[in-house]
């Protein structure tokens, strides 16, 4: 199965990753077939479309910076699969602490190249020439409220920009549309009805803002609506102009603003693509398939 390597590279002796995660992951043919099988149901249900895959460098470090949706655990893996198939690059993901803290789940995530989400791991992977995906909005975007579809909640989030500047990694805006459409928010985390759940979340040591909304998919169920997923990878942003800035914090904020504007442009492009697509829904795709 997966061959992992935590040995020094030709760039010198690298820092290790936390939790015993492998520094390098090379997928075997069997691994790739397993990933194909695991993602096949979602690919069939959401019928994704991709734009701009050629903007991912063939090698070398790159930071993919995206928007987090309600379906972050569903849409992001489909993009990672497409990048693996079309660009032959394994996108290294950064997982929440609550996932990495589960031993068996942690081992499975490590086999797929996913590590604990912290600055040390992200910087180390970039230094080793890996492709890393980050979502600056994090839990705030994942647990978004009503009226916040596809809004970037990045206030105060400049860490990704600092890491890209420090490592010299280009940034590729990574837009995803569809993940906020497959569920309706019945009550968001701030609703008075959700007060007991908010107390539980706080009791677990998490921020109240991370209280998940009450959602529904098809009818009253949690089956996601078969809305099409759309992805767009924008033109790489060279981070070298900010490398020698006198004020690193100001440089990071300026770069964050540039990336945010670029990502919002990609999101607008995808929203326009979605709105004119007859195949956005399962019904539309079915009618198109039979020539109606």
Keywords:
two-stranded antiparallel ribbon; 7-stranded mixed beta sheet; single chain; alpha/beta; 292 residues
Instruction: Specify the helix fraction band.
Output: 25-40%
Query: How many β-strand runs?
Result: 11
* Proportion in β-strands: 5-15%
Biggest β-sheet strands, sense, barrel: 7 strands, mixed
Count of helices?
Answer: 10
Spatial strand sequence of the major β-sheet: 3-11-8-4-7-5-6
**Average pLDDT value?**
91
Structural class: alpha/beta
| Molecular shape | globular
CA(first)-CA(last) distance: 45 Å
SSE pattern = EEHEEHEHHEHEHHEEHEEHH
C-alpha Rg (nearest Å): 19 Å
Residue stretches low in confidence (pLDDT < 50, at least 5 long) are: 1-12
List the helices and strands and how they pair.
Layout: E1 3-5, E2 24-26, H1 29-46, E3 49-51, E4 62-66, H2 72-87, E5 91-95, H3 97-100, H4 103-111, E6 115-116, H5 119-127, E7 131-134, H6 138-142, H7 159-167, E8 171-177, E9 184-187, H8 195-203, E10 214-216, E11 230-233, H9 248-275, H10 282-289
Parallel strand pairs: 3-11, 4-7, 4-8, 5-6, 5-7
Antiparallel strand pairs: 1-2, 8-11, 9-10
Helix pairs in contact: 1-2, 5-7, 7-9
